[in-house]
Design brief:
The protein has one domain. α4 packs antiparallel against α7, α9 crosses α13 and α11 crosses α12. The longest helix has 37 residues. It is globular, with a radius of gyration of 22 Å. It is an all-alpha fold and 423 residues long. The chain contains 15 helices and no strands. The two termini are 25 Å apart.
């Protein structure tokens, strides 16, 4: 079968999970005892950035494959195209964060408080970049450019289905667009990553942060492709996608997990070696106040995928690939959790104190080391439910895109190479 049918039963299940996610967000908003509804806003930002980033990295992977003249992935390139289009609803979700920034609905970012900036020399030095205007324009412009490239590459790919062939004319055009996108993606993704996430800990910075976050997206995105392919194969689609294709995707999960770990250690080691207080406080907080997140992150994202995927045959077994893919998606979602939650909680508590509020007991942040706070020390049921809701929304959007086109491109000049792929 080369035409995907989005069944009503699948839609019902996905709508059910989306409803669960919405309910968990509402409960986080109304039941949160922390200032400025920080649990709600961090959950919203966390999942928005995580799944929008998976959409972006899908486009990046697709463009890299096109530029490198790869052919093995051609049969399932529609999955990458469809995943990349999640950036459209992702941008809409980011507009909610931007609206909250201007309206004062949240205190996710210390630098957004002009009174605090006026008293803080470090924030004043970064104010040219860390400000509401740059955050808004940068997000709209950069994600808008990403979406434009995603739509352009998808339209060229679909046009090739209609009138392409062995002359490579359409593919040469796609290669030019893909090659143009890669440097734009590299520089622009760093800018928005610094804005969306690293600036939550506004006094801290890391030259490896954008690489680290991008590697996390890459592993999670590749794992998502594996899950889509195995699910679709179980429904009778993609019969020509073989174990060899999944084997190569498994190798990407294995290799980039090691690369992510290299960045994890390098970021920690370099900051520890420098022994600069403004930098080491980031890791000090996470190691001492959030040890489950800090060390669990390493176990889920390196130890388990490394030892499970080390053997060649495990990359060819559907059950093992599904297990590892779920683990690394959950693990990197947890990674984003620990990048966002501690700093955002401290900022909200500080802002509440600056506006005449009292320090919130049990915050688990600065001044209350080691205290347990559900939804911050570790993810609670509301966080997990929200994640399932966003994941269902992501799957729904991908399936909706897949339904509109043939699953396998019919006139791509690399289809034969993909069909005979062997490792």
């Amino acid at each position: 079968m080369n035409q995907f049918t989005f069944e009503s039963k699948q839609k019902t299940v996905l709508f059910g999970f989306m409803g669960l996610g919405l309910l968990c967000l509402l409960l986080a908003f109304f039941l949160d005892s922390q200032p400025f509804h920080v649990r709600f806003w961090t959950n919203f930002l966390h999942n928005t950035v995580f799944f929008t980033g998976i959409g972006f990295i899908s486009l990046f992977i697709y463009a890299a494959f096109i530029t490198s003249w790869a052919g093995w992935y051609t049969q399932f390139k529609r999955v990458l195209e469809s995943m990349s289009m999640f950036m459209v609803p992702g941008l809409i979700l980011l507009l909610v964060v931007i609206a909250g920034l201007w309206a004062g609905w949240h205190e996710l970012y210390h630098w957004a408080d002009t009174e605090e900036v006026a008293k803080d020399a470090v924030l004043q030095g970064k104010s040219g970049f860390l400000n509401k205007g740059w955050y808004t324009i940068g997000t709209l412009a950069i994600v808008g450019i990403w979406i434009y490239f995603a739509m352009r590459l998808r339209s060229l790919s679909l046009a090739e289905d209609q009138n392409g062939g062995v002359d490579f004319a359409h593919h040469r055009t796609m290669r030019r667009w893909a090659a143009a996108f890669l440097p734009i993606a590299g520089f622009s993704s760093a800018a928005v990553i610094w804005q969306w996430m690293m600036s939550i800990d506004a006094h801290w910075y890391s030259t490896l942060y954008a690489w680290y976050t991008g590697a996390s997206w890459f592993v999670a995105g590749t794992a998502m492709v594996i899950l889509f392919l195995i699910y679709l194969k179980s429904k009778g689609y993609y019969e020509s996608v073989k174990e060899d294709h999944l084997h190569d995707l498994g190798k990407y999960v294995f290799a980039i997990s090691i690369f992510w770990t290299y960045l994890w250690f390098s970021q920690y080691m370099l900051i520890w070696y420098a022994n600069v207080g403004e930098e080491t406080s980031y890791f000090q907080t996470r190691m001492h106040d959030y040890p489950v997140l800090f060390y669990g992150n390493l176990i889920l994202n390196f130890v388990l995928p490394f030892f499970i995927l080390m053997r060649n045959d495990t990359k060819r077994k559907y059950g093992t690939l599904v297990l590892v893919s779920i683990l690394v998606i959950l693990g990197h979602w947890l990674d984003f959790f620990q990048m966002i939650k501690p700093g955002a909680l401290d900022t909200a508590i500080h802002a509440a104190g600056a506006h005449g509020g009292e320090h919130i007991a049990g915050a688990g942040g600065h001044g209350d080391h080691g205290a347990f706070l559900m939804g911050f020390t570790i993810p609670g049921l509301l966080e997990l439910g929200t994640m399932l809701g966003f994941a269902a929304f992501f799957v729904y959007m991908v399936f909706a895109r897949l339904e509109k086109v043939s699953l396998e491109p019919v006139n791509d000049p690399y289809m034969a190479e993909s069909a005979h792929h062997h490792v």
